[in-house]
TrEMBL record:
Organism: Marinobacter confluentis
SUPFAM superfamilies given in the database record: Triosephosphate isomerase (TIM) (SSF51351)
Transmembrane stretches, start-end: none
Residue positions binding substrate: 9-11, 173, 211, 232-233
Protein's job: Involved in the gluconeogenesis. Catalyzes stereospecifically the conversion of dihydroxyacetone phosphate (DHAP) to D-glyceraldehyde-3-phosphate (G3P).
Single GO biological process annotation from the record: glycolytic process
Subunit structure comment from the entry: Homodimer.
Catalytic activity, EC: 5.3.1.1
Protein name listed in UniProt: Triosephosphate isomerase
Enzyme class: isomerase
Similarity field: Belongs to the triosephosphate isomerase family.
NCBIfam families for this protein: tim
Catalytic activity: D-glyceraldehyde 3-phosphate = dihydroxyacetone phosphate
Species classification: Bacteria, Pseudomonadati, Pseudomonadota, Gammaproteobacteria, Pseudomonadales
Length: 252
């Protein structure tokens, strides 16, 4: 059975006060959830230690970015081994903001995925098309290429540490959301692409991201190939984030 996951990406938001305000109610409420969802918080690196201190038994923690290298003279970078050493379980890789704003290439993203899984982290590979690419009818082609490139270095025994998050670029932080049907179609296409790569595609979790909120989460999570969500702004509000977690269907 694929794991259902709701991961909150804080992006460059947060403070010690937010950690103190947000984590206790989220952690305490997780114990009451009976739908089997795994909940992950991915704060800015400066707050990882604070989040780990406040995280209850049911809450996992990740980092928003890792280096292509394991160690060395790379000022400002954080390695996968460091993230693992602190207690993190997940690492975001290839988020569209990293691709677009910081010029991350397919080769760099593949190297980061390799670093993550080699150090026992679960890499959440982010993929997604722009509005122009979707309107040109190239959405599936673009996403397939990102999946192929990003996972090119994954070895046969490492697939259990791979999650793919589909985030259409045009829906991130815009208030626009892909319809449940459109999101499902892309997730199904991603699963087929994973099969072509030799991955155990039916066992890997696929997440949807892009303005997921409490009022649309249930429809998205009800789709057969959507196993959870990568949540942005809504993850900064305890009530909203918990409502999204509760929207996950219970285990069969």
């Amino acid at each position: 059975m694929r794991r259902r996951i709701v991961a909150g990406n804080w992006k460059m938001n947060g403070s010690r006060a937010l950690v103190q305000q947000l984590l206790p109610p989220v952690s305490s409420e997780l114990a009451s959830l009976d739908n089997g969802v795994g909940v992950v918080v991915i704060p800015p690196a400066l707050y990882v230690a604070s989040v780990l201190e406040k995280a209850g038994a049911g809450l996992e923690v990740g980092v928003q970015n890792i280096a292509c290298q394991d160690a060395g003279a790379f000022t400002g970078e954080i390695s996968a081994s460091m993230a693992s050493d602190t207690g993190c379980r997940y690492a975001l890789v290839g988020h569209s903001e990293r691709r677009q704003l910081f010029g991350e290439t397919d080769d760099q993203i593949a190297a980061k995925v390799s670093q993550a899984v080699s150090h026992g982290l679960t890499a959440i590979l982010c993929v997604g098309e722009t509005l122009a690419q979707r309107e040109a009818g190239a959405a599936e082609h673009v996403v397939a290429g990102q999946v192929q490139a990003g996972l090119a270095k994954v070895a046969a025994g490492q697939w259990q540490n791979i999650v793919v998050a589909y985030e259409p670029v045009w829906a991130i932080g815009t208030g626009k959301t892909a319809t449940a049907g459109d999101a499902q179609a892309m997730h199904a296409a991603i699963r087929q692409e994973l099969k072509k790569l030799g991955a155990p595609a039916d066992e890997l979790s696929l997440l949807y991201g892009g303005s997921v909120k409490a009022d649309n989460a249930a429809a998205l999570f009800a789709q057969p190939d959507i196993d959870g969500g990568l949540i942005g702004g809504a993850s900064l509000k305890a009530d909203e984030f918990l409502s999204i977690c509760r929207a996950m269907p219970g285990e069969c």
